[in-house]
Write a structure and sequence with these properties.
By secondary structure, this protein is an all-alpha fold. It has helices spanning 2-20, 25-67, 71-101, 108-119, 138-143, 147-150, 158-189, 199-223, 242-266, 275-299, 301-336, 346-365, 372-380, 385-394, 398-404, 407-435, 437-444, 446-462, 464-467, 472-490, 498-502, 507-526, 551-563, 569-582; strands spanning 536-540, 543-547. It has 24 helices and 2 strands. It has a two-stranded antiparallel ribbon with strand order 1-2. A hairpin with a 2-residue loop joins strand 1 (536-540) and strand 2. Helix 1 runs antiparallel to helix 9, helix 7 (158-189) packs antiparallel against helix 8 and helix 22 packs antiparallel against helix 23. The longest helix is centred in the N-terminal third of the chain and has 43 residues, at 25-67. The two termini are 40 Å apart.
């Protein structure tokens, strides 16, 4: 705005020089063009300053809504603000006593009455309007579980007074938010035409400048809480001459530099407490817990050392046995074909079978069978008829043949046959295990897989705004704002607060200003949406939702459609429905 003020100052000096000399039409058009551009710059600066106030005001409103959530939050806010309350209370009591001692309070009865009222606990809540919201605290007395405290009379119930104070500040901020929306809507409905191509258009442009300057003057008066005029009157404006318009524009530019700061300063007493007031209690609790934990650790240093060593050894064994070893075995099996499961070796089974063949061939030769190849072929197919015939004959006289016959040898051959059969069964089982060895190894890697998945899920939840370009809280905020926009467009009528009525704003300006505030919220949150050429992802709750390419660009296009004055409410609701159909994260 400094450059605008400098330009207006230069034009003012030029106009004063032209007043003494005859000015040409080109010079007049140049002066009018500079004035038009300056008023347009002031108009844009005011809109930008008011929009910059929207987000901090919304944060304060959300804070007070969260503090009015229940008894616990009320008690926490009361304790956090108690040092500042006690300091103000003590200051008031000291002032009352000092005035009583020095005789500045009138009579003794008046002094005693003032001292008694200053001692009341109500003085801890100086901003509460007790005449308002008479029945709103009945919920606090009927739904909370702290019965002993809430059975105290209403005049002495500090939680009731705290709730009244919070709702009082919340109502003031909501009124300021409505006033801010009305001012934004009124400014956005005003247009500044910079066309000076003909006398008729130039006169129309000057008239337009007068209207915009009146609106800016009303907005500035509302920001600094002064009496304002309606849009149809202009008692504060000087006669419609170029130099007077320039002087008025220069004065508006100077006021516009501090308008936003003055508006924010008016709301300072209703805004959320400072960071020190909000953080001293958690900081004190953290310091106390850290001190107690430090003392406990120092007193049990050896125990903690042993626990840490045992925990490290347990973690090391777990990683080595249940994560690294299964993964290494699976890699070796896939890469090199190594087998970890083996019940019987092929060499042992072949040796046992050859021993059985030799024993059967030798036994058969003793009883007349001389074809060794035929005997081996029958043994290979499992036929031991040469042995079983002798065994059946020997069993007729078992005790005699066990000592003097061939019964023992036949029995030993059968034992060897059983050993070979068991070996073949184990070989088949070994083959089955080898064919499913990879399945067993993959099953053994389940602990490793679960550990890696849990670690990745934890890291993803902590740093989701790095990975996915959005956070679950941002998407939730966008959904809430979209609901507010849909509700605003759906309502046929809009209420006007007293502050808005005093500012001379119409219902249409209030609705349009609220809509611009909501779209400003969406623009603020849309900065974290992915905008790559490929499909992206945003985090919603505990999961992820895929997004279309150029999500941010399409989202901002829809926001511009909602803001467009060329569309009516029905068309804007169609845009909202299109957004719900297009963006899956809504």
């Amino acid at each position: 705005m400094a450059s605008v003020i400098n330009d207006l100052g230069l034009v003012r000096e030029v106009c004063r020089c032209q007043a003494a000399n005859a000015s040409t039409q080109a010079q007049d058009e140049a002066v009018n063009l500079v004035l038009l551009n300056s008023v347009a710059a002031i108009h844009a600066h005011m809109v930008g300053q008011l929009l910059d106030t929207v987000l901090p005001l919304s944060i304060d409103i959300d804070y007070w809504n969260s503090q009015d959530d229940g008894v616990a939050t009320l008690a926490l806010y009361l304790v956090q603000s108690l040092p500042w309350r006690l300091a103000g209370w003590g200051s008031d009591i000291a002032g009352t006593v000092f005035g009583f001692v020095n005789g500045r309070k009138g009579s003794v009865s008046e002094s005693v009455s003032a001292l008694y009222s200053s001692i009341s606990t109500k003085q801890l809540f100086p901003e509460v309007v007790l005449s308002l919201e008479k029945d709103e605290d009945n919920v606090c007395a009927s739904t909370t579980a702290i019965a002993p405290l809430l059975r105290v009379p209403r005049s002495a119930n500090v939680l009731s007074l705290t709730r009244r104070e919070i709702r009082y500040k919340l109502r003031k901020l909501e009124d300021a938010q409505n006033l801010l929306a009305a001012m934004i809507g009124q400014l956005c409905q005003a247009t500044v035409s910079t066309s000076t191509s003909s006398d008729e258009k130039a006169a129309s442009g000057m008239n337009n400048i007068d209207i915009v300057m009146r609106q800016i003057e009303q907005i500035l008066a509302a920001c600094i809480e002064k009496s304002t005029q309606t849009a149809d009157s202009k008692p504060d404006l000087l006669p419609d001459t170029e130099i007077n318009r320039i002087c008025q524009a220069e004065e508006l530019a100077k006021k516009a530099q501090t308008a936003s700061a003055q508006f924010t300063q008016r709301l300072e007493r209703y805004r959320r407490p400072s960071l020190i007031a909000r953080g001293w209690l958690p900081a004190l609790a953290f310091i106390f817990c850290a001190r107690q934990l430090t003392l406990y650790i120092s007193d049990n240093r050896e125990d903690f050392k042993a626990w840490l060593l045992d925990g490290a050894a347990t973690l090391q064994n777990y990683v080595a046995q249940y994560i690294l070893a299964p993964l290494r075995s699976a890699y070796e099996t896939i890469r090199y074909g190594k087998h970890s499961y083996s019940v019987v070796t092929e060499e042992s089974l072949l040796s046992d079978f050859r021993s059985l063949e030799d024993m059967v061939v030798g036994f058969a030769r003793r009883f007349g069978s001389v074809d060794a190849a035929d005997v081996r072929r029958r043994v290979e197919s499992g036929d031991l008829s040469d042995v079983m015939q002798v065994y059946a004959r020997e069993m007729q006289q078992p005790f005699k043949n066990a000592v003097f016959g061939d019964l023992v040898e036949a029995m030993l051959i059968q034992v060897q046959k059983v050993k070979v059969d068991v070996g073949q069964t184990m070989a088949a089982l070994d083959k089955l295990l080898k064919s499913n060895e990879l399945n067993f190894l993959l099953l053994s890697t389940v602990p490793a897989t679960l550990s890696i998945y849990a670690a990745g899920r934890w890291i993803s939840s902590r740093f989701s705004w790095w990975v996915g370009g959005s956070s679950r809280y941002t998407v939730s905020s966008i959904s809430v704002v979209m609901r507010d926009i849909d509700r605003l467009l759906n309502n046929s009528g809009h209420e006007e607060t007293n502050a808005v009525a005093r500012a001379g704003c119409t219902t249409m300006a209030v609705a349009h200003g609220k809509l611009i505030c909501f779209t400003h919220y969406l623009r603020h949150h849309a900065r974290v949406l992915p905008d790559s050429g490929a499909c992206g992802k945003v985090r919603v709750g505990s999961g992820w939702v895929s997004t279309l390419p150029r999500t941010r660009t399409m989202f901002l296009q829809d926001i511009r459609d909602i803001e467009s004055v060329a569309l009516d409410n029905a068309q804007k609701r169609n845009v909202v429905d299109r957004m719900y159909r297009t963006f899956r994260f809504l």
